[in-house]
Amino acid sequence: MRTRSTRIVLVTTGCLAFGLAVSVALAWALCLWPTRNLGNTFQLGVNSRPDGERSSHTVYHWSNTRSVGFRHVAIWQIPGHEPINRHAARRMREQIHAGKAGLPPDQRAAGPYVEPAWPSWLPTLPEDETERAQWGARAAGWPLPCLASRSSATSTGPGAGTRQTSWSMRLIPATPTSGAAPQDPDRGAVPLRPLPLGLAANTLLFASPLIIVLVVVPTARGTIRRRRGLCPACGYERRGLEPGQPCPECGQARANTETRTHRGRARAKA
Question: What is the pTM of this model?
Answer without folding.
Answer: 0.77
